[in-house]
């Protein structure tokens, strides 16, 4: 008697247009039959032959349903498009598919029309009838919705020709924006779970770890510890119970790398965790994800349920004897829980506070058991490495930093969004190549890399190759991948204060250096920005920063002085201007500003005087007005109201 698995395989080969859906329907009818010894081999063959056929006539519309585009109304576009297609009788000829984040958040909501790969940007509800009538019915591209390069004025017909995408190397993000993250069929059709079957049936756990070592993959969540080495520690650790933990507690301001991967390709993370569990000898995993990521959590739940239904999670996976289950733990939003020991404490149900190390989690982690912790991007790289080989991965990047890295490119740059680039690329190539340069034609000033614990690098470091060692030597860190671009209007002292204010508020307070040191440093920075700085403040700041860096208990405290140390290193003159000249060169620090009215531009309209809450502006009608500096409270209302640019600040 044929097993259910055999029947599924036959369905797969006889209905290639929707093999995965057939398999899932069969799997939902009951448990797989494990009596047939051919089940395992047949399922492996099933996975290898599940690819969707290349069909040039296959038409589908991909609509971004990541957090960014969803907040801009993309879900309404899905409904409206389906209704419009039905009105034209095309509901069975054109497939409408939601996807995860395309990455080009600046231009959302985004839409791709396949198979031509036509790329539409900033699509609105009122554009849907024209897209259907002109493009999907008439075959005419709606040119006004194509991307236009602001530098050259050229239009890009397909996403592959958009400079933002053309200069990336998307490996981890390859599926994001192109598959439906809520359908396991799409993931399997994109070679999903082939790496798992290869690991289970063709490799020993030790061989899996060796392949990861060969790849040179380093942890993408912060310090860049070699992934294969970490796995080998957990494999060698003694214990009858071991855990695999995915750190998805992405708390850096402006960072959304992990969120986008979880929303756009959740099965890649699950597959990476499964392979890790097999390699280190664990049978249980946790994904610690921020509760502020509801869409990521929603799609993770769907992915886990689908993987369980298909026999890819649970007991005796693919009849291999390997058991593995995954649970989701929603974090409460504490930044310190991104530190691995604090994260483990939180999973255990306690207040998330770091523990002294050693012992390291590899020896004594979750509930005292050997535990492997990697972040989302690290796990998402694993299936690629196992499927293609460690040597393939090691061929990309630099000598000590292999593969690619995802960055959240934000700030004063034309093209903000999610980018994936090879290790070793320069800051200049990312900011001016992928990012399209600085907004409004302003001058580049600095880039802050590595989140609130990272460093600020100046223009002379633009050609610095991005790898772990180069960034450390320059006074920054790779971190999780935040990349904030700043222009000439940015005050670097204020930037240091901003990031320290964040880390000081997020400090758990367990250790004295971080609890007291961050508070004292923030007080000094605030005093400098308010024009009350002293000559000795710079030396005190520097000394305090190094003490905290060298003595704090966890990574949060040890790296939080980086914005101060890097801005002192590269922008010391701005600190000195604030202290000695009582002047903010970028004209940002409100307490140091002086508002004046240029008599040559002033028409005497009186708008500024009427807007001043302190009554500091006087003058006759149609005559130049003046500001009484002694009464001015520096609110800036006068500058906002003046239509002639007569109010100036210095």
From TrEMBL:
Its EC number is 1.6.99.5. The keyword Iron applies. Residues 593-622, 623-650 form the 4Fe-4S ferredoxin-type domain. It holds the Pfam family 2Fe-2S_thioredx. PROSITE patterns: 4FE4S_FER_1, 4FE4S_FER_2, COMPLEX1_51K_2. GO terms for molecular function: 4 iron, 4 sulfur cluster binding; FMN binding; metal ion binding; NADH dehydrogenase (ubiquinone) activity; oxidoreductase activity. It is an enzyme of class 1 (oxidoreductase). The keyword Oxidoreductase applies. Keywords: 4Fe-4S, Iron, Iron-sulfur, Metal-binding, Oxidoreductase. Transmembrane segments: none annotated. Belongs to the complex I 51 kDa subunit family. This is NADH dehydrogenase (Quinone). It comes from Desulfofundulus kuznetsovii (strain DSM 6115 / VKM B-1805 / 17) (Desulfotomaculum kuznetsovii).
